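Lecture notes, continued. The same structure-token format from the folding unit now serves as the input rather than the output. Read the line below as a description of shape only.
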């Protein structure tokens, strides 16, 4: 089997979570950079990474890496890549996206058109053809320039991996599924501990937690671009990896996961999303304000994404809202609370400084993941277990 360099982007600040996921799948990491990890794997690794990774944005095959400060260097660098090893004669190939940071070549549209021309020139010489119908499987290419270093990759995923297929209904400011999963995996939460999200919106935190608890692979119910790449990956490999995912599911696991929101329509959407994800029996959704948050049990977790006040008319309500969050948390005996927000005065109005604070980029928005740690529960005796 051929070994590929697989390039996997993630949210800035969450590389450690993705790194652990890749190690847990059994693969060797070759490079860790800001917002992306490179690891080595074969055709099966492409399938398994797409199906099993919860925190990756997409899975790409790195096909070239070189320096370029002129369009001629870019052209020659792209032309030198052995495209014929990846793209068949009838393949549909194009540069889906080009991005440039701190580089002399900065125009995405120019980078895209020059790269396409270079690919065509290479293919013409290798296939002895002057024209390509491009009526076969799609092979989207992504090009990244950082400080004049060009990385060229084939996108195996297609739509971003945060699109699990369960969330057709969203609330006003939804958190992506990949970010929600990464934040949950950053906490010490385990399926035997209570989890409550008092601003659950369309249900992303509770649903991702339930999928983690039941060991449901996030990508097992969606399609990927590389499924059509029969020149590189046999169809049966995808079926085998989905079968592996199905065999690992445990929907009998007992959990206490709850999602609240003040908006009743949003709660209906959350229930529907949970049903599509196959975890509706594991989550209790209820219309409830954060001021009414209470729970008789100890050592639970609040993991939530409260309003940030990105719209001016909402900003005025934030001091009162975060004060309510603080009061509700005070009444939860021995609980831990984790919340992501861009609101700079969150700690002030919650009334307590966070034990840890991690800067995370939610798209282009700088946010903070505040971690308020409660005490660890006492170890259970063997007899009690």
């Amino acid at each position: 089997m051929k070994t590929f360099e697989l390039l996997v982007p993630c949210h800035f600040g969450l590389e450690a979570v993705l790194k652990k996921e890749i190690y847990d799948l059994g693969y060797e990491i070759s490079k860790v950079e800001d917002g992306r990890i490179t690891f080595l794997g074969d055709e099966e690794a492409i399938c398994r990474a797409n199906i099993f990774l919860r925190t990756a944005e997409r899975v790409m095959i790195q096909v070239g890496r070189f320096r370029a400060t002129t369009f001629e260097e870019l052209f020659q660098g792209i032309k030198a890549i052995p495209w014929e090893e990846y793209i068949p004669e009838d393949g549909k190939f194009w540069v889906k996206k080009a991005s440039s940071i701190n580089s002399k070549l900065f125009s995405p549209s120019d980078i895209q058109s020059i790269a396409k021309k270079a690919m065509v020139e290479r293919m013409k010489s290798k296939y002895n053809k002057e024209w390509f119908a491009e009526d076969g499987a799609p092979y989207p290419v992504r090009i990244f320039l950082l400080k004049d270093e060009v990385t060229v990759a084939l996108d195996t995923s297609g739509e971003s991996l945060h699109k699990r297929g369960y969330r057709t209904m969203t609330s006003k400011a939804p958190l992506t599924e990949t970010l929600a999963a990464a934040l949950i995996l950053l906490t010490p939460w385990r399926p035997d501990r209570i989890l409550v999200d008092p601003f659950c919106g369309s249900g992303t935190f509770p649903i991702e937690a339930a999928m983690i608890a039941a060991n449901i692979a996030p990508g097992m119910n969606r399609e990927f671009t590389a499924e059509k790449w029969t020149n590189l990956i046999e169809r049966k490999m995808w079926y085998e990896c989905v079968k592996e995912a199905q065999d690992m599911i445990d929907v009998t696991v007992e959990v206490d996961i709850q999602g609240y929101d003040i908006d009743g329509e949003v709660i209906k959407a959350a229930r529907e999303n949970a049903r599509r994800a196959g975890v509706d029996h594991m989550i209790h959704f209820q219309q409830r304000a954060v001021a009414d948050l209470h729970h008789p049990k100890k050592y639970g977790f609040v993991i939530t994404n409260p309003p940030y006040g990105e719209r001016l008319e909402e900003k005025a309500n934030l001091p009162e809202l975060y004060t309510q969050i603080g009061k509700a948390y005070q009444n939860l005996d021995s609980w831990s609370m984790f919340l992501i927000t861009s609101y700079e005065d969150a700690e002030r109005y919650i009334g307590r400084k966070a034990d840890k604070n991690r800067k995370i980029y939610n798209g282009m928005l700088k946010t903070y993941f505040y971690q308020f740690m409660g005490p660890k529960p006492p170890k259970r005796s063997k007899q009690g277990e």
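Point for the exam: The chain has a mean pLDDT of 94.
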